[in-house]
Design a protein that fits this description.
10 strands, single chain, binds ligand LEDWP2DD, lipid metabolism, 2-enoyl-CoA Hydratase, Chain A, domain 1, 7-stranded mixed β-sheet, 47% helix, 11 helices, alpha/beta, 3-stranded parallel β-sheet
Length: 302
């Protein structure tokens, strides 16, 4: 099995990043995220970036409708956006949010894990690992403004941020619900949750596949703040001020000190983790469970 799949190679072949965005932002100057100083939005088909270099941050909006499921292309575009902002000294922070009404993210794209071949599963999982590692260890301050339901892999992405603001809407539940699909959260998903909410809460949440509505998410520490829906972005911006007031090198080193041991566990056994994933996801019983789950999602509509 070819494990040496290169996301950068994929990136080059699939995307032309940093084209002016299609859709709503095309051809006009969007107000910048914080200052409205005429800085242009940029991005890729599935990720809209609203930069505010004067204020030192950018708002990164996920827009992979209908549910921001984390397909291989979408993961790649998120990585490119992150890399671009990380390599520009004007930016010290990102606010990650969604452009899809009512949905932050439905998690990993089930179509990437169902009915494909082992090479594809390996390539996909490597991209999932990469996204987590890059967000988890980013030297930028990353705050998620969670404006919708947020399941499994989407929740992992939010848990990788430094601070989480959740919109107060009972429909916007979030959690690592893998067991409800008959699959399991890998150890680094688990570690990220444990680091956020503690061992006991994580154990119960993972075994039961709990999706926490806002009040409960706040109570267990899965999110840091719950605010009225129309204030999620402004609350994230206000919070940023506190993080950006800290000397950057001190904050970054402290973040690394806190997070490196967790990331190192995966870095040390990345290929083995990919092989475990491929073996697990290729099992007939797991493929069947995913198909049944997808079917249930579709039947819900009828
Ligand atoms: C021995 C041990 C070894 C262990 C080794 C480790 C192995 C590791 C194991 C594997 C680990 C995998 C980790 C997986 C992580 C994940 O993230 S799995 C995904 C989990 N996500 C969910 O459960 C959410 C599913 N979706 C929903 O609940 C709902 O869609 C929603 C988000 C609440 C939105 O609802 P609504 O607005 O009503 O939209 P829908 O009509 O339901 O959906 C619209 C269309 O989108 C499709 N869709 C939804 N979610 C996904 C998805 N995650 N992936 C792909 N597609 C999705 C849905 O089917 C609809 O499609 P159409 O019917 O074609 O329109």
């Amino acid at each position: 099995m070819a494990l040496a799949v290169g996301i950068r190679g994929l990136t080059r072949s699939l995307l032309r990043p940093w084209v002016r965005v299609p859709g709503p932002a095309r051809g006009r100057t969007e107000p910048a995220a914080g200052g409205g100083d005429g800085v242009r939005c940029f991005g890729s088909p599935r990720v809209l970036v609203e930069p505010d270099p004067a204020a030192g941050f950018a708002v990164m909006k996920m827009r992979n409708p209908p549910v921001n499921s984390l397909s291989l292309e979408f993961l790649t575009e998120l990585l490119i956006s992150l890399e671009k902002l990380e390599s520009d000294k004007a930016f010290h922070a990102i606010i990650l949010t969604s452009d899809c009404p009512g949905i932050f993210s439905a998690g990993l794209d089930l179509m990437e894990m169902c009915g494909r071949d082992p090479t594809h599963y390996a390539e996909y999982w490597k991209a999932v690992q990469e996204l987590w590692l890059r967000f988890y260890l980013s030297h930028l301050v990353v705050i998620s403004a969670i404006n919708g339901v947020n399941a499994a892999g989407g929740c992992l992405l939010a848990l990788s941020c430094d601070y989480r603001v959740l919109a107060d809407n009972p429909k916007y539940a979030m959690g690592l619900n893998e067991t409800l699909l008959g699959i399991i959260a890998p150890f680094w998903f688990k570690d990220t949750l444990v680091n956020t909410v503690g061992h006991r809460t994580a154990e119960r949440a993972l075994q039961l596949g709990l999706l926490f509505p806002p009040a409960e998410a706040l109570q267990v520490g899965m999110v840091d703040k719950v605010v009225p829906e129309d204030q999620v972005l402004s609350a994230a911006r206000s919070e940023l001020a506190q993080w950006l007031a800290i000397p950057g090198h001190a904050r970054q080193l402290t973040k690394s000190l806190m997070r490196k041991p967790t990331a190192d566990r995966l870095l040390k056994e990345r290929d083995a983790d990919i092989q475990n994933f491929v073996r697990f996801i290729s099992r007939d019983a797991i493929q069947k469970a995913l198909r049944v789950y997808l079917e249930k999602l579709k039947q819900k509509k009828t």
